[in-house]
């Protein structure tokens, strides 16, 4: 793997340059996509090999549109290459788990197009999965490989907990960011100030909830709402009043309808009503969050459940992303592990 041409992977501070750092939207041009190979066998149980197959399918789908760099535990590089072929680059770095959206860096750009990265603290979603010491440092180590400067923050934050429009607005959930297992000593205003200082946003929109079933992450926003373009969001809705998410998604929708972004625009809301469930061979039921997609260069890579609702969801997402190819990848096993396509990917914006 050839590192990007960048300054040294040193640590810097917000405001240390003349130009303000800002996290670009996911649809900004990418240099590559970052992934991590499944390694916590206890999480996947009997579906460990199926998980690897779905990760490989996701890497290969993204690889049709942009380069993919896969982080593998030392000694696993050959396995990744066998599974993915020549579509990916591999770097061997010690990791505990494979949810790089949450443990990885948030790349920023300044007014001249230079890059740095916000590196927030990671505590394994409130210390749910142990150990996590390698994942707590993987962001710094991968930045060293990429040659991108680091802006460190002591605040606990996972990448799946936020979505940004690249123009100053960030959306998150109260369920996650205000959970006492993340930053118990920080108030809501403290958290907002840290987001603004490190990600270059001017406004934070707080949705009440993530998915009811999202117990691993305590309700990440990337399963229920994501930006599709400036002023436009895709929001998960639920039409079945018997489901726990019926009232929760309705509450989120009311907040979005009454919100304006940093530019003062009311939000255009694209509703995503599809809500598939899948039963695994052992009887475990999973829910695949269609909103948990990855925006690649020229494409949107969407988790699908191999369910009758897949085609409808893909059509809704295609309308929100005109000019991009919409590609579904099987994600039932990834959903069993607690996430989707967005959770297992992290964009590296182009300098």
The domain count comes to 1
| Biggest β-sheet description | 4 strands, mixed
Number of helices, counting only DSSP H or I runs of 4 residues or more: 11
Cα shape: globular
Percentage of residues in strands: 25-35%
Kindly provide the radius of gyration, computed on alpha-carbon positions and rounded to a whole number of angstroms. 19 Å
CATH superfamily: L-arginine/glycine Amidinotransferase, Chain A
CATH fold naming: L-arginine/glycine Amidinotransferase, Chain A
Strands of the widest sheet, in order across it, are 1-7-6-5
| CATH hierarchy: architecture | 5-stranded Propeller
Helicity level: 25-40%
Average pLDDT reading? 94
Spans where pLDDT lies below 50 across 5 or more residues: 1-11
Question: Span between N and C termini?
Answer: 18 Å
Query: Would you list the SSEs in sequence order as H and E?
Result: EEHHEHEHEEHHEEEHHEEEHEEEEEHEHE
Level-1 CATH class name: Alpha Beta
